[in-house]
């Protein structure tokens, strides 16, 4: 049977397609695993370069919230934030009309009580004269004496009431209790305030503190009375400070502990300015630690891991590590590595356990411009 009749057979195209499909289903040859070039570094102890420095805010040692001792409507406010005030200077005033009316009423009561006392005293004198003439009994004298004592007591009560009302009228004026700087105004003209409601905050002149917060793992190393170095952000001037107070409990929101550092009285920094505090004796700069660049780390499960080179087989294996802290663009490894190990520092996300690698060699350009 010749080939020509077969090619003219109507099933010939279908048979040819089936043969090609069978040829394509054959198992391809396995692709060899690529040998990747990686950058390596040898693990060795190096000095820790970061110092413990905390950003702090300069605050007054004493800051008072001043308010009226009586309630009323504010009709005048002279205090402004940032303004310096002297002790006794008027800060604000509430409407004194009601207090003046009450004082006038108390004054009238004093006048009425004085009149009653004078009448009782005159009545007693007349009865004494009648008693001397034996026109009345001694019991009448005792009644008149009791009436006079009651009138004198009412007079004293009225005078005390007048004094209290006079004080109330004086409390309508809010004056600065100390000299200092107004740091905040918490009430405005036209506002009705209750007795004791803060109206003005005053930073008292005198010592100042640098206030900052430390985490729970560092607060145990800071003690009251410890010396610290204070660096001003504005001009890098250095000051010597001393820890004055360490909070006994953590802040409920930030879970940090507040620390107050007493600043020297000579040339104190401005209120609200930023300073940097470095506790002495807590610095760990220069301490030998094992450090890796952040590019060497990869995520493995719930922790971190690196690729470690086996020089005998030129393969890599995964090594879990524990990170203690950071030092700039590097991490400090507390567990998992030993000095002398070779760790992959670039291309970690394209490697697999047991994969063969080669050491990456940087190309250098010679004096003639040729790449070597």
Task: Please characterize this protein's 3D structure.
The protein starts with a helix and ends in a 13-residue tail after the last strand. It folds into 4 domains: about 35-50 and about 285-360, conserved putative lor/sdh protein from methanococcus maripaludis s2 fold, CATH 2.40.420.20; about 65-95 and about 170-205, RNA polymerase II/Efflux pump adaptor protein, barrel-sandwich hybrid domain (OB fold (Dihydrolipoamide Acetyltransferase, E2P), Beta Barrel), CATH 2.40.50.100; about 95-165, Helix Hairpins (Orthogonal Bundle); about 205-280, Beta Barrel (Elongation Factor Tu (Ef-tu), domain 3). It has helices at about 5, 10-25, 95-130, 140-170, 215-220; strands spanning about 35-40, 45, 55-60, 65, 70-75, 85, 90-95, 175, 180-185, 190-195, 200-205, 210-215, 225-230, 240-245, 255-260, 275-280, 290-295, 300, 305-310, 315-325, 330-335, 340-345, 355-360. It has a 6-stranded antiparallel beta sheet with strand order 2-17-21-20-19-18, with no helix packed on it. A 6-stranded antiparallel barrel has the order 3-12-15-14-13-16. Strands 4-11-9-6 form a 4-stranded antiparallel beta sheet, with no helix packed on it. The longest helix is centred in the N-terminal third of the chain and has 36 residues, at about 95-130. The protein is built from 5 helices and 23 strands. By secondary structure, it is of the alpha+beta class.
């Amino acid at each position: 049977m010749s080939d020509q009749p077969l090619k003219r057979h109507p099933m010939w195209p279908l048979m040819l397609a089936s043969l090609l499909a069978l040829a394509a289903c054959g198992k391809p040859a396995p692709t060899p695993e690529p040998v990747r070039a990686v950058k390596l570094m040898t693990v060795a102890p190096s000095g820790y370069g970061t110092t413990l420095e905390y950003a702090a805010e300069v605050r007054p040692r004493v800051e008072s919230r001043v308010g009226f001792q009586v309630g009323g409507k504010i009709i005048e406010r002279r205090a402004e934030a940032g303004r310096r005030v002297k002790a006794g200077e008027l800060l604000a005033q509430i409407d004194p009309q009601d207090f003046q009316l009450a004082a006038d009423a108390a004054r009238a009561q004093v006048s009425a009580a004085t009149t009653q006392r004078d009448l009782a005293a005159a009545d007693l004198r007349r009865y004494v004269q009648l008693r001397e003439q034996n026109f009345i009994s001694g019991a009448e004298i005792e009644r008149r004496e009791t009436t006079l004592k009651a009138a004198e007591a009412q007079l004293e009560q009225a005078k005390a009431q007048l004094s209290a009302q006079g004080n109330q009228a004086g409390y309508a004026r809010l004056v600065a209790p100390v000299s200092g700087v107004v740091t905040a105004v918490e009430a405005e003209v036209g506002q009705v305030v209750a007795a004791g409601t803060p109206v003005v905050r005053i930073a008292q002149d005198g010592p100042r503190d640098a206030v900052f917060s430390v985490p729970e793992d560092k607060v145990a190393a800071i003690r009251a009375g410890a010396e610290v170095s204070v660096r001003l952000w504005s001009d890098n001037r250095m000051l010597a400070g001393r820890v004055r107070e360490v909070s006994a409990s953590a802040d409920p929101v930030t879970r940090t502990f507040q620390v107050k550092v007493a600043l020297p009285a000579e040339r104190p920094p401005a209120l609200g300015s930023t300073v940097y505090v470095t506790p002495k004796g807590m610095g760990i700069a220069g301490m030998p630690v094992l450090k890796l660049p952040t590019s060497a780390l990869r995520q493995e499960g719930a922790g971190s891991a690196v690729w470690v080179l086996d020089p005998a087989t030129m393969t890599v294996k995964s090594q879990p590590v524990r990170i203690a802290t950071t030092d700039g663009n590097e991490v400090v490894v507390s567990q998992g590595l030993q000095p002398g190990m070779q760790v992959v520092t670039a291309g970690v996300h394209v490697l697999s356990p047991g994969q063969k690698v080669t050491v990456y060699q940087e190309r250098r350009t010679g004096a003639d411009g040729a790449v070597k």
